[in-house]
Amino acid sequence: MGVITSRGEIRTFLENLKERFLETPSVLSVERSISNKMDEVIRGFWTSADLPSGGFALFAVGGYGRETVHPESDIDLLFFFKDQIDEETIKAILHPLWNLPFRVGHQIRHSSDFRNFDDNQMESYTAFLDSRFLSGDLSAGREFELQILPDLLRRSRDRFLHELLAMKAERHNRFGQTIFQLEPDLKDAPGGLRDAHWSDWARKALGPNGAGGGRVPAEVLALHHCLRTYLHFHAGRNFNVLSYEFQEQIAPRLGYKDSEHGEAAENLMRDYFMNAGEISRRATAWEEAIAGSPNRISVDSDFTDPFEMIEAFSEAHRRKAKIDPSALSRMRRRITELGDALANNPRAGRAILDMMKDRRGIYETLLVMHEVGLLGCIFPDFEEIRCRVIRDFFHKYTVDEHSLIAVRNIEELPSKHRFSLILNELDKPELLLLSLLFHDIGKAHRHDEGNHVHPSTEGVKVILKKIELSDEDADKIVFAIKNHLEMSKVILRRDISDQAVIDQFADLVGGLDNLRMLTLLTYADVKAVNNEVLTPWKEDLLWQLYVETHNRLTLGLADDQYTQQPGLESDIAGITSLLPDGTRPQDVRDFLDGFPRRYLKNTPKTEIAEHFLMSRKLADRPVIMHLGRRGHSYEMLVMTADRPFLFSKITGVLAYFGMNILRGQAFSNRHGTIFDLITFEDEEQMFEKNPTEVERLTQVLTDVILGKIDLDQLLLRKTTSIVFQPIRGAGPVPTSIDFEDEFSRRCSIMEIMTQDAFGLLHRIASVISRHGCNIEVVLINTEGHRALDVFYLTREGVKLSAELELNLKEDLLAELSAPGTRA
Asked: pLDDT tens digits for 295-325?
């Protein structure tokens, strides 16, 4: 056959290829056919031009060098000159190529260009690693391939490898570090063709002694190439995103059919993700060969006992290590033989829950367990959503990856993020993670995608029963999954400024534990849909709904007191059992008498017992203070006899020490013991840097409470010695003060919204105390520069009169409108 030189002949050639490919797309290698044809054309141009061959070599590079030219890919060439660059030689090849229906990219290099490594030439260097000699001086070509380029990379090996890692990291970051894109970019996404190319570059750069992941098998890449060729033929351009439309078109052509697990296109994508996973694993192995293997543990077992696999992952998670690849390979082989030996096994389920108690690294642990198939062996319902595709306008990831990313969102929640405050209040955060893992298992089979909540809920009930989770813990998980769409519905479809909406939602959640679980699950779930769904506006709405519902649920907490009710005797007995022998249950009852019942129900009994023992010391010490760490915040408990201005003094001292108060509770028992529990952040890490400051805080607080130190003078010195910077971008917050008498039988509820300021709580509490009022309970919430505080007030044991409320409001407005320094 003669050399093809005309645009029309090339067009005919490509049309014939397209027709044959669309008839049998899984058989014909279009990329190799195009590459071979271009070799023939270019060599024909070379021969007909009668060009000198000495000191010059023409190479195919990049995809053309790999012989994988897709219909709309570029034809990339390297003109290498060992001696003088010959412009006529370049023109003789390029000019006729420009008349053909291909985009031709070319680079011209002289041997001197390879004396020094240039970080800005990384794309060129990687393309040259895939060079293939076409024409010219064979000896010059071999010198380039075997000496000049390898010598450059050998001399600058560390720089090249460093830049190679950076290229991969930047590319993966664009795609959220996951292969499970519902509409993947076949070329650049993690697990795409570029990862296979990258693995080869790493292999070549490391040389024969480099221990990496080996070459990606051709059969693994075949589906990627087939799909990309289809896209190019249909789009008529270099288009590489496998959209829903193209998935539906090509799946039947490749023999995929509808099944109970999904439509033909969804089954196609399941195979794509399996291959993408293999490509990604090999690229990761080469990355570790470059950067150094992470902390690994070696497991010398053939895993005939399947629990050894779980124990290996538990140990790896505990040590923040990875399991060596050979052990993972043995696990994969063993798992294919397991059957249902681990399915919903109580021991296995408890092991997963125990791992979840340590959130750091839990996403990576669960992901690898899922990749090898172990997670699916333990929870078959989760295996059913492996690579499950639900096609809509919002979700970006497969169902299983979405669920794991939701877990990661909780793991990576910043310590200073406002939702971290809620997370720190959960007694068992691991139940939240288990809820996220299972919240979408109802999407496993074909059904009305708008109604996956019911099958998810029913499915998780069965799982939790089989793994023998306690009824109390199971109820929390079932509630969260059953209602995991409700907060999104409320913030997007309801006016949350309408009190009736808040009342209705508060009735749904019923209690603070459910509210916390549901809020965090909603945050993590929505954020895991894609990178754009959880906008700052939606996050603000979610937080506002949480705050409003929290306040609604706690509006009656001052009335909900423990009054030695017989129905709570089991709690009293549980606390008494933790106390020294001889402690009478009546002593515990007297200590708790008048405290909110939620304190008795929600506080761990070990802590209540500790608080009881602290209260015993009040006979000898006027003030008892206990400081404890809770996650990224501190909790300070102050016990003392009732005295004027107590709460304002405590908050004032914390302000003096620069602490950011997050939440406060103040209540008392019938014997006059005041119990103030303040949660705060040490933003400057004063206590960590200077542990003796804890002792100084204790002493200053005691002296202020006992009147030995003038707090006002202390704060005055603080404010005059520090220049307070305004909060950037924060507009003024108008002060509003409202009283609500409907929701409490014995307390007046005062809600204050105002600008956050240094010593704000101290100033408010001082005004309250000057009016002879007692603070029974205070709820503190701060949103950026806006303070939203709720105070439960009495005077002489009863609600405030209307006249007193008015006077208090006027004085507070005057105090808060006075010039002050910003925090």
From this structure: 888 888 989 999 999 999 999 999 999 998 8
Between CA 642 and CA 222 the distance in angstroms is: 78
Amino acid at 631: G
How far is it between the farthest Cα atoms of the chain? Answer: 110
- Do 529 and 392 touch, CB atoms closer than 8 A? no
In order of 149, 482, 740, the CA distances from 504 in angstroms are: 71, 17, 18
The residue type found at 273 is: F
Give the HSE-up count for residue 704: Cα atoms under 13 Å, Cβ half-sphere. Answer: 25
CA–CA distances in Å: residue 620 to residues 568, 615, 624, 636, 642: 30, 10, 10, 20, 16
| DSSP symbols for 31-83 | HHHHHHHHHHHHHHHHHHHT---TTEEEEE-HHHHTT---TT--EEEEEEESS
- Tokens 């990049």 correspond to 62
Give this prediction's pTM: 0.60
Tokens, residue 129: 């690693």
Q: Please tell me the distance from the alpha carbon of residue 717 to that of residue 579, in angstroms, as a whole number.
A: 45
The CA distance from 775 to 790, in Å, is 10
Kindly report, residue by residue over 514-530, the tens digit of the pLDDT: 999 999 999 999 998 87
Instruction: Describe the chain by its helix, strand, coil percentages, rounded to 5.
Output: 55, 15, 30
8 Å CB contact between 387 and 322: no
**Of 83, 99, 390, 56, which is closest to residue 247 (Cα–Cα)?**
390
Nearest Cα to Cα of residue 444 among 435, 434, 454:
454
CB of 701 within 8 A of CB of 650? yes
